[in-house]
């Protein structure tokens, strides 16, 4: 890719971002668009101030929403949206913290070193390779500058990872303390419940088992039943209730507006309402019949929610094996009610591995088929080489400037278009894997999407681009293959610059504009929802889409931080714009549907560490290809240290994200018991007049010696 193509891509993306953000600032001021841009606030019935109608200010673009985003504190985000929403913001802040000093190093130190890598100015001033590591000649001592910067960036990244992990852990512990009174904190999900032979039911089996093995902490249970047969009836009842409501509203409007029309149609509407009400009563009667105890017993599932008297009792039961047979009486921490995936509770425990194997096979097939568009995109990006293999492509050059747009902007747009569909496909597969909560489905989807993007977008783009670029030279000069490969690796930097520009400027701008919802709202307003009250378009925050895509951008930035430092300034713009956009989306648009108390951060930590290790492995290979084996050997200890750091973080932080601390639960329980005891004593007599020795005895009775 030549500089003209890169300039064309940057110009188009910057221009499109400015236009889209200007439209957003104008559309957000219109009350008719409130269901799109203030969906969350409307759902909570918050007052939304708008400018008076027919004022010029209401139709002028503004940037007031940008400084407002930077004034939002982390405590406000946690209080309003939870710790999971803060994780998204901390991911963008991590990118800013890491790449800001890396950009200074890259622009001040690495770019001049690369530019003068041939012990003089480069021959081709217009080539992007003149600013990359490929411009440095073999065996040059300038590579030790890259070696030093590699160590500095790696240690700085590991330090930030440790600091972030420690801070998120503290916030998780604090958040768990805040939600300690929530019912799910006292509940355990039990699966694989055997049938009681005496009563031919599983409920008595649950009560007998936990009364025997957890006599002091067990409280009660609630069996689960297969309610799929009720879904059709409930859907019909909801549809009938909506029709009745619409007919009543229409009759009310006609009564106030057109009295003559009311006389003609009121009788028809009343008759329709009467028939629909009778149908609704019949459906309600059938639903109540199906919910009776005798009917439910036949639909009983081997699944139950078991309630305990204390949090530590629930934690002990959830984190221990209850039976010698590992498939019987399996327990886990119960998700909160809004997080439960109710349909998956009906999947038998024994067949869950088959579901997960099927999901893995489906994801593998999708990965293989996705290789076709990625290879085609690289063919378009490598237009100069593509002309030799496909001569009709030369027709693009007949229009001035078109080849720059085709090679610079079009490939990244096509690739981002395909990538947009992948997270939703992976989430659909994760839903079929049988997880009992939506949060686990999205966590699994995060993993699948990230490794899919790393394999297809990063590695396959690199390999396909290198093959198209180097296949001719490798056949004619096989001895020069290592040097050509090193140049091809660094040459892919310009393609990833266009990818970051398109994904960041255009992608984040379209995310905040929500053009799909705007178009859909307009169609509904002009057709079947005309004149009716608008409902907010409320959707959950798409963790499964945001986290993997942003993590991929971070991986690309870390790998190319030393190879092509020109990429780093674009990454700063990427993370700053993403930070501002998602502060706005979290505050006004997206709904919080569940709270995992920061369980997404261990996954993000792992993705960033993978990026750091790939950066080090890439530099080991490049030092070898540049005939600097000493630098390659000296980088190996850095790689080993990073792996040891990963192992340490797994031992130090990860267990607290996976399990609950029994010590903390018991101590807080003892605090509550002591408080109740003191209140009782105050009611009987004044605590101040109790002898000091007696106070010590009371405290020791509850806390031990």
TrEMBL record:
It is a multi-pass membrane protein. The chain crosses the membrane at residues 6-27, 98-115, 143-162, 357-381, 401-427, 448-468, 496-520, 541-560, 566-583, 604-624, 630-649. InterPro entries: Csc1-like, CSC1/OSCA1-like_7TM, CSC1/OSCA1-like_cyt, CSC1/OSCA1-like_N. Residues 185-344 form the CSC1/OSCA1-like cytosolic domain. Residues 230-293 form a coiled coil. Belongs to the CSC1 (TC 1.A.17) family. Residues 6-164 form the CSC1/OSCA1-like N-terminal transmembrane domain. The keyword Calcium applies. Keywords: Calcium, Coiled coil, Ion channel, Ion transport, Membrane, Transmembrane, Transmembrane helix, Transport. Residues 356-623 form the CSC1/OSCA1-like 7TM region domain. It comes from the Eukaryota. This is CSC1-like protein At3g54510 isoform X4. The keyword Protein transport does not apply. It is found in: Membrane.
């Amino acid at each position: 890719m030549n500089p003209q193509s890169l300039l064309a891509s940057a110009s188009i993306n910057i221009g499109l971002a400015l236009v889209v953000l200007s439209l957003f600032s104008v559309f957000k001021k219109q009350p008719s668009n409130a269901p799109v841009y203030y969906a969350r606030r409307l759902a909570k019935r918050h007052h939304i101030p708008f400018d008076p109608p027919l004022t010029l200010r209401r139709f002028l673009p503004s940037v007031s929403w940008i400084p407002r985003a930077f004034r939002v504190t982390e405590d406000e985000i946690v209080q309003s949206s939870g710790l999971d929403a803060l994780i998204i913001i901390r991911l963008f802040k991590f990118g800013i913290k890491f790449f800001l000093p890396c950009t200074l190093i890259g622009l001040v130190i690495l770019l001049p070193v690369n530019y003068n890598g041939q012990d003089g100015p480069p021959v081709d001033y217009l080539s992007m390779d003149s600013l990359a590591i490929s411009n440095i000649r073999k065996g040059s001592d300038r590579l030790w500058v890259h070696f030093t910067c590699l160590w500095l960036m790696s240690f700085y990244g590991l330090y930030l990872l440790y600091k972030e992990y420690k801070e998120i852990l503290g916030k998780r512990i604090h958040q768990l303390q805040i939600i300690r009174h929530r019912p799910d904190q006292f509940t355990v999900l039990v699966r694989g419940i055997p049938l009681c032979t005496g009563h031919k039911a599983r409920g008595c089996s649950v009560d007998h088992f936990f009364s025997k093995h957890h006599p002091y902490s067990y409280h009660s249970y609630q069996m689960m039943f297969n309610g799929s047969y009720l879904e059709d009836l409930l859907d019909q009842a909801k549809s009938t209730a909506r029709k009745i409501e619409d007919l009543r509203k229409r009759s009310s409007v006609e009564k106030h507006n057109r009295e003559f029309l009311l006389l003609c149609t009121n009788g028809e509407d009343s008759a329709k309402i009467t028939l629909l009400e009778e149908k609704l009563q019949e459906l309600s009667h059938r639903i109540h019949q199906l919910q009776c105890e005798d009917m439910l017993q036949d639909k009983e599932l081997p699944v139950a929610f078991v309630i305990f008297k204390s949090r530590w009792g629930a934690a002990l039961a959830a984190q221990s094996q209850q039976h010698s047979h590992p498939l019987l009486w399996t327990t886990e921490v119960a998700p909160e009610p809004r997080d439960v995936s109710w349909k998956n509770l009906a999947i038998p425990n024994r067949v869950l591995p088959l579901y997960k194997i099927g999901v893995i096979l489906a994801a593998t097939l999708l990965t293989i088929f996705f290789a076709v568009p990625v290879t085609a995109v690289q063919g378009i990006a490598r237009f100069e080489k593509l002309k030799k293999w496909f001569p009709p492509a030369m027709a693009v050059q007949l229009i001035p400037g078109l080849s720059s747009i085709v090679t610079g902007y079009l490939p990244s747009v096509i690739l981002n278009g395909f990538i947009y569909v992948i997270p939703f496909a992976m989430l659909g597969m994760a839903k079929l894997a049988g997880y009992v909560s939506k949060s686990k489905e999205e966590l699994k989807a995060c993993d699948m999407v990230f490794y899919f993007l790393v394999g297809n977008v990063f590695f396959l783009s690199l390999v396909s681009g290198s093959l198209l670029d180097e296949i001719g030279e490798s056949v004619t000069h096989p001895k020069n293959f290592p040097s050509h490969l090193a140049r091809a690796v660094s040459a892919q930097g310009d393609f990833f610059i266009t990818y970051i520009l398109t994904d960041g400027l255009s992608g984040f701008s379209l995310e905040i504009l929500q053009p799909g919802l705007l178009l859909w709202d307009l169609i509904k307003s002009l057709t079947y929802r005309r004149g009716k009250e608008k409902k907010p378009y409320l959707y959950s925050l798409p963790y499964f889409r945001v986290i993997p895509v942003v993590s991929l951008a971070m991986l690309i930035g870390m790998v190319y931080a030393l190879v092509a430092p020109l990429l780093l300034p674009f990454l700063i713009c990427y993370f700053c714009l993403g930070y501002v956009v998602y502060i706005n989306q979290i505050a006004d648009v997206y709904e919080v549907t569940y709270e995992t108390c920061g369980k997404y951060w261990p996954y993000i930590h792992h993705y960033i560490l993978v990026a750091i290790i790939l950066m080090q492995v890439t530099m080991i290979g490049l030092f070898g290809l540049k005939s600097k084996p000493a630098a390659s050997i000296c980088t190996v200890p850095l790689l080993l240290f990073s792996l040891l750091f990963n192992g340490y973080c797994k031992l130090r932080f990860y267990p607290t994200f996976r399990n609950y601390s029994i010590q903390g639960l018991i101590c807080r329980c003892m605090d509550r018991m002591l408080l109740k005891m003191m209140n009782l004593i105050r009611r009987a007599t004044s605590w101040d007049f109790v002898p000091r020795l007696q106070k010590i005895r009371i405290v020791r009775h509850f806390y031990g010696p």
